[in-house]
Structures are given as C-alpha cells and as structure tokens.
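Researcher: Can you fold this with zinc ion in place?
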Amino acid sequence: MPELPEVERLRLSLLPHLLGARVERVAIYREDVCECVHGGEVVPTNAFALLEGAGIESLHRLGKHLAIASAGGPAIEVHLGMSGQVLVHEGPLPEPSEAKATHTHLAWTLRSGGATRTMIFRDPRRFGGVWGFASFDQLRERRWGGLGPDALEVTGEHLFEQTRGSARSIKAALLDQSLLAGVGNIYADESLFAVGVSPRRLCKRVSREQCERLAQAIRVILAAAIASGGSTLRDYVDADGKQGASQFAHKVYGRSGEACAACGGVLRTATIAQRTTVWCPTCQK
Ligand SMILES: [Zn+2]
C-alpha cells in the first residue's frame, strides 16, 4: 500500500504535467469510485466537480492524501488505496471498453501550452477513490479535518502528548492517521527499528526522549524514502509509470526471518495492530 513517500513522489511527478493545465474534459467510466460534494451535501457525480473546465493551480498533500486544486474553483482528492494509480500519457481518452479492461475509472483531458495529454485514475482493487469539491477549502475541511499533522513535520512533543498514558501499542499509535498523517506499516516498522523501540511497547512506557527520537526518525526516514523514489510496491508507479526504488534500503519491512542488519539476530514477525509487523527482539525493547 502506498504511504506518504510514494504519494509525495506521485505529487512531484504530476506537477510538470498539471500546473497551469486546463482540464478540457472529464470522462467518468465508473461513478462508484467517485463522490462529489457541494455545500456539505453529497451531490450526483458530475464532471464539473471533478475539474472539467478548470485551470489547475496547485497540488497538495497531507499524509497519504493527494489533492489537485484549481484557482478559486473545484478541487479533487485522489486516494490510491491499495492499488490506485494516476498516470499521464500522450494518447486520447480511452474508449469505454479499453477503460473497463484496464480498470480505468476516470480520465481527464489536459490542455497545456498547445499540447494535449490524458491523465487517468485506475484502481483494480477499488479501495481508492476520487472526491470532488467546490473548493480546496471544502475538501480540506471535509476530508482532512480529522487527520493529524503531516508525518514529515511531526514533533516529539506532539507524539508524546498524544500517546502519554495510552495502553495501546506504539505501533498502533503510529498507524493512527488522526494522530499522525502518512505513516503506514512500512515506515512505522522502519522508524521503530531505527530508535530501538519494540512495536509492542505500550505508549505509556515510551518516554518523552524516545518520542523525540522517534519523531526525528520518522521525518528522516520519510524524507530519505522520498529522495530515493519511494518504495518498490507491487502496484505503485508515479505519473510517468516509474516504480519506486528504496526497497533495498528497508531494514526490517519484508525481511522477517532474515538477519538483523545491526546485530545479526533473526528478525521476528507477528500481527500487531492488525498488521504484519517485523522487528528485532534484540535491538528493539
Ligand atoms: Zn538486531
């Protein structure tokens, strides 16, 4: 599942295609992956709310959530879910039969500097979706209001204040998007390994000093993952179809049963907070 670094890589790869482009047409192949909201009410899915006729001014991200906004007009949020992709190519809008065969649910015709391109949203497993709003402010209020601060900017103080006294595991807290937006299974495990804290440790036993180091590890590891292109995940590609590259930098994620990079012991796995978790029982306490 794409996490913050992959969504940020997608945002960066979309920028050159989208900034200043005008959306000439929106083709809706599957309405049930979309939700359009106007004035706080869900309205029938319509091309206007999904940016038809709008000029694209900015791309925003909070955690794993990506928004494409026009100047003073509609804005959309794209959520990749498990297998969502946003791709830009030179060809025309796909025919309905082709869209169905490729799990393409939406497509936008983009006009920019005399060139015409097509952006598509495809999502075979349909855990993702696209939401349309009359403005970016409405999008932010309705979709992002319940999210914690972006993980790239999280502070130790915030982590400590939000977790102190809690009887849940620190891993469960890191995955809680209302506490912290953008950390998922991969980077939760990597960050906890970096600071030597067991994913099973209860929040109330994580000190202020450990929260400081954990927040720093989260920021550093996410920034490094963005810089190296995001993780190589089964379905993840950026707007140009390029895969991520940082898989080989993972120290624990996906390495259950292998040797710990720090002590040589065997990495352990268990289900914690409903997710497959990998850690080193020697290095992480
Ligand atoms: Zn170890």
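Model: Folded with zinc ion in place. Residues 260, 262-263, 265, 280, 282-283 surround zinc ion (CB under 6 Å).
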